[in-house]
């Protein structure tokens, strides 16, 4: 498939043709949200798989049985998937990269608790570049510079990081959204795990938190990624570090991101939370 064939547009945002379709979105609109669902919301490469694993381990500790885990993103698959998901038992652990306007309305009406994970936009860009080039369902770029041009203008699958993040600003005080950052999770995972427990009302002991910390470390997850992510293991678990952008960005590119950050996110609550 050509680069153009690999993506299609829905409500002004590009999505991967191989993974979803307009019909998928129509099916998703009819999905029944539940108050007790966990919905992880991320722009790509901000720590989706990490947080999914964290919530999975937490639910397992609390309920002593496997929670319903989403395979891939909520927006991936055939429209029938949502009828199937509607039958699945709670708790359901779901994740999506779609902008807030495309999330089925009843997630907001039911006040489903959402976990928004943010990441520094420069590290996100570098992670996205490696990911798109190694993932056969996504466009390939001949160079970092070419990818950067598309990233900074929002001409990538899921659109602009800055637009995406800014759109969540209007929901930040809704009361059902917990915002965490990739960098804070790297700095002190137990502290951030406690925030998730408090938010979802999960009573976990310090010992259980320690166990989850170990099970969701980059090395543990990478080690098991062959069985959890198959051929895409190395694509999803690359470095797991903060500051890798310094290895690829030119000074000019760094300034371009600074300017976008200033234009969209400076002075916003979410902008202030991003470790920038
Ligand atoms: P890098 O490409 O910078 O290594 P997502 O799951 O949203 O696609 O995000 C992928 C990014 O999260 C990748 O970043 C990946 O390595 C990192 N990651 C995945 N699991 C992690 C973990 N347990 N700890 C730290 N980073 C992790």
Q: Can you put this structure into words, describing what you see?
A:
This protein is an alpha/beta fold and about 280 residues long. It has one domain (about 5-275): 3-Layer(aba) Sandwich (Rossmann fold), CATH 3.40.50. It has 14 helices and 7 strands. It has helices at about 20-30, 50-65, 80-85, 105-110, 120-135, 145-155, 160-170, 180-185, 190-200, 205-215, 220-230, 235, 250-265, 270-275, and strands spanning about 5-10, 15, 40, 70, 90-95, 115-120, 175-180. The strands form 2 sheets. The chain has a 5-stranded parallel beta sheet with strand order 4-5-3-6-7. Helix 3 (about 80-85) links the parallel strand 4 (about 70) and strand 5 (about 90-95). Helix 2 (about 50-65) runs antiparallel to helix 10. The mean pLDDT is about 95.
What key phrases describe this protein's structure?
single chain, 276 residues, Rossmann fold, 5-stranded parallel β-sheet, 14 helices, Sulfotransferase, EC 2.8.2.-, Sulfotransferase_dom, P-loop_NTPase, transferase
Task: Lay out the secondary structure.
Elements: E1 7-10, E2 13-16, H1 22-29, E3 38-42, H2 48-63, E4 68-69, H3 81-87, E5 92-96, H4 105-109, E6 113-118, H5 121-134, H6 144-153, H7 161-168, E7 177-181, H8 182-187, H9 189-200, H10 206-215, H11 218-229, H12 233-236, H13 251-264, H14 269-273
Parallel strand pairs: 3-5, 3-6, 4-5, 6-7
Antiparallel strand pairs: 1-2
Helix pairs in contact: 2-10
Bound molecules: adenosine-3'-5'-diphosphate (A3P).
